[in-house]
Each structure stands twice: as structure tokens, then as C-alpha cells.
Amino acid sequence: MGALSGLRRAIKQAQMWGMTDSIASGTAPDSPVLSTRLDDSDPPWPQRPWVMAALCATAGLLFHACIDHDYGDPLDRWRMALATFVAVATLVFTLGMEIRRVHWAAGFALLWGVIMALIVWNGAGYNFDASPFEWPFWSGLLAVLVATPLFQTRRDVAPDGRFWKLWQMPYDRLHSHAWTDAVIGAASLAFVGLSFLLTVLIGEMFHLIGIDLIRELLRGEWFGWMLAGAAFGGAVGLLRERDKLVATLQRLVMIVLSVLAPVLAAALLIFLLSLVGTGLQPLWRSGFSTAALMMAAAAFAVLLANAAIGNGRDERAGNRLLHIAAAALVAVVLPLAVIAFYSMHLRVLQYGWTPERLWGVIAAVIAVAYGVSGLWSVVRGRHDFDDLLRPLQQKLAIGLVLLAGFLALPIVDFGAIATRDQLARLENGKVGADKFDWAALAFDFGPSGRQALARLAKSPDKARANRAKIAMSAKNRWDLGPADGRDAAEVAYRVMPLADKVRVLPAGRTLIPEVEKAIEEQQWCRDAPCILYWLSDQRVAVIGRGQARVMMLERDAKGRWSPNYALGDSPSRGDTALTVDDLVKAPVELRTVQRRQLFVGGKAVGGNFE
Q1: Where are the alpha helices (H) located in 260-354, listed in sequence order?
Q2: In DSSP terms, which residues pair with 561 in a beta bridge?
Q3: Which of 262, 312, 359, 438 counts the most CB atoms within 10 A of its CB?
């Protein structure tokens, strides 16, 4: 409540100064000693660190409440979506909030929180038993990160809310917001790490004198999320109130990065010139993803080039060598992007479309667009290429936000596109049933892939129908294995229900669902039969094929079964290897065995020796 009242007082103060609905102009009253704002139009707010710390700590507690569950079970979709809303909305509001137009910041944060929550909701139900953190999620997150400095700049200079005039914003302020957000975010994350280390140190100090309160708090996940939120929010608040100092740090980071520009420029030029003699064939034989390497090199080239050219002409690198290196880095982005695009093209021709390759091609096209803009600015502007490049980068950033946001929404179904292409390859004989990626159809292509499997299961082609039925019955993609011609019988055994592979003893006992789940989590009995022997109502032994390996499962106070590695999971000396017939037919006994072992002070030492 204290934090909220402080926020209300600050907003009223800002309204008295006329700061919430007008263009950024004029100078705020003298700031307190602790406030060093970069923009004089931003009023000081000494309570900001405390308000932000309280806000983020509350968000951390809410986030934990959303994700707190039995980690052996999948998290509900609605809880995933709600947790994403809390995290994204809080993060965006914390980084982008100013007293000026605070309602703009709140609306912007809530909007992106809702969008990302919907993306996670759709992603969690798209693939069978899949994580929501798929490509659409990362695309939406990219849109958030790029949109935040665009919003901050528009908030600072706009006389009204006409956000469709984004391209008219001053580039120097936009560039400054982007770098400042990155520096503040990185520094705040580092502060979170230091806060945890300090808390652990304090907890251990008090533990020495018998006070374990802090140690017990650290064992609770809720406290960890609250501590992380409070540390992050407090750090952001402190740095925002000193953003003039942050701007100096940002400029220092840019200077340090710009020094690396000639090194990378020389390496990339030598690399591209070498390809003239060697050709592209060595790239395909390297064993690495050529497209990923080229895209990473292009991204570093853009980063270092922007560090060298700065926010405007007055901030461009004074060293002639650095300026030439920046021009070279901008120019080489296009050939790197073209190589990445061609690599993706060859991959698609060889193996067909998948959602990952569709995303990769889109990323390569974006890189090509930047490369064309960069090369044009270098050819047209020469020494003053950066004057032409900056407005082009601003337009590209706006386009990237719109494209990434559009692709993150469930409008274009990449899984359906990939399903049609892969089925066409199967139908025309480009790939046989033994080489076809059935796991991708079952787990990567969404509802379209599962529907295609249901159709293929009714195919008159027995090989295809059998493989499709096996894929539909699999609970995870790892049971199906890679598309490498794995024997159908082996795959069929893997996806067989566990109850059909386990011999339960003594007679009259059964395999209960809780124990079955624990065995599946440990991936025992997946490739061969095994024996489950009930030692008591609280403990069972699972005997696997091979050198008599035993896994001991025990039930805890909450009723959850988990392995006790101190009692099992090790071969006994002198035991012979067990065969499949032993596990299926051989008699099993529970015997009391005498053993000889050394004891020191009443405690057993070493293993038994007879």
C-alpha cells in the first residue's frame, strides 16, 4: 500500500507540472542530489526504486503462484498463460515506465502481456505434450524487445497518441533508449545474481550461530522469485533515476564494442574473399549449421557497426579506421545473408519444409533486407553512409516489430505448411516409410501433423499404416527415435504400454499408476522387459535387463514415488547378466542374506567381502 500511495503522489506531482499529456519540453524543478536524469523533462522520483522493488516482488510472488505445481505433471495452459502475462507486463512496465504519461506505459505493458499470454496459450496446446516456448513465443518476445524503445521514444516526443507516425521519431533518442534499456537490463540481472549471493552469505553466517531463518526462506521457491523481483525492480529504479550516468556507461560500452569493429570487419572480408577461391562446398561439409553461423556473423556485424556510428553524426567514431570498419561491416551483411538463405534453400530441397526451416528462411530474408539497405547506404552515402543508414534502420525496426508480432499470432500455420510438404515427399517417393520423420509429424507439426497420422494409419500401404499407428501411440518423440531407418519392431516395442513390458511380483500385486509414472520418468523398461517386485507398500524394486541392475522406488509423505539411489541402481558383484527369458519366465525370490562386513565404531565401512 505504501508503494501504491507513493506512485499516486508522484503522478499527482507530475500532473501539477503538466507532464502527462504534453510534448516533452521545458525543465523540471531542481532534482534531488540522488537524481541525475538525462532528460530534464523527466521529474525526479526518489521513491522509484522502492516502488519498482515492491511491484516486482509482488509480481514474483504471483508468478510463483502461477507455476507452483507438481513438476512431474504438465503445467496447465491457463497457468502458463497467466504466468507469462504477469512476467511480460511487469518487465515491460518496469523498463518503460516514466511519470510522464504513466497511463501510456501501463496500457503498453498490459497490451503486450495479453498478446504474449495468448501466444503461450496457443503454443501450449499446439503440439502434443510440448513446451509453449516454441518459435512463436520467441518471435513475440523479439517484437516486445524492439517495440519497447519505439514506445519510449514516441512517449517522449509525441504531442498525441498517433502511433502510426513512428517513422517520424528522432533516431538519436530511439537509439539511446535501445542501448540504455539493454545496459539497464543487463546490469539489473547482474544485481539479481549478486543479491542471491549476498543473501546466501548472510544465511550461512547466521547458520553458524544456530539461526536458520534465511536458509529456510531460500529453500522456498516463492521467496526466491520475490527476492529476484525485488532486486531487479530496485536495480532498474535506481538506474533510471541516474540515467545520465547510465548514458555515460552506455557510451563506454559502445566505445569498447566499436574497437572490435575492425577485427570483425577484417575477418569477414578475408572469409568472403576466401570463398571466391574455395567455393561454398566446404561450408556444407563443416558439420555446423552454415545458415546459423552466417546469421550470427551478420548480427554481430550489425551490432558493432551501430556501436561505431553512434546515435548521430556527432557521436560517430572519430577514428577514420573505425568508420571504415563500420562501413565494411554494414556492406558484408548482404553476402552473409545471401549465403544463409542459399544454405536454407539447399536444406529445404534435400529434406523438405519444417516449421524451423520456415522460421530460418524468414530470418534470412530479414537479414537480406537489412543487407540491401546497408549496402545501398554505403554505395550512395560513402563517408556519410551512416546518415542514410539510421533512418533506414528505424523503418526496418518498425517493420520487424510488425512482422514478428504477426508471425507470433496463430494466423499462419507453419505446421500445416510443413505437413503438406512432407506428405508430398512421402507420396512421390522422395523418402521411404523407414526414413520418414514420423516423430516430427507426431510432435512438431501441430494438429495438422496429428490429423495426417490418423489418415496414414488407414493407408492400404501396410508399412506406412504401421509406422503411423506406432507414432500415434508414442507418448514422446524420443521413443520414436530419429528418422534413420530404425527397425519398426524396435520402435513398436518402445511405444508399447508399460504394463505390457513389466512383470509384477509377488503374485496378486499390480502396477499402480503412480509407480508406472515414476518408472516412465526414469526411462526404465523402455527397450526391454523388466521385473517389478513389491518389497512393501512403500517400496518397490525394478530389475532391468543386463548386469542385474536394480532401481529402488520409494513413496514419500506426499504419496509421490521417486528413486532412492543409495539403495539401488548398481550391479551386484558376481551376478550374471540377465536375459529376456530370465525377466519373463525365471522364478524370482526375496531372500534374507547373511554377509560379512567391517564396522568401525559401530558403523559399516566399505562393502561386503563374503
Answers
A1: 261-278, 281-284, 290-309, 320-351
A2: 555
A3: 438
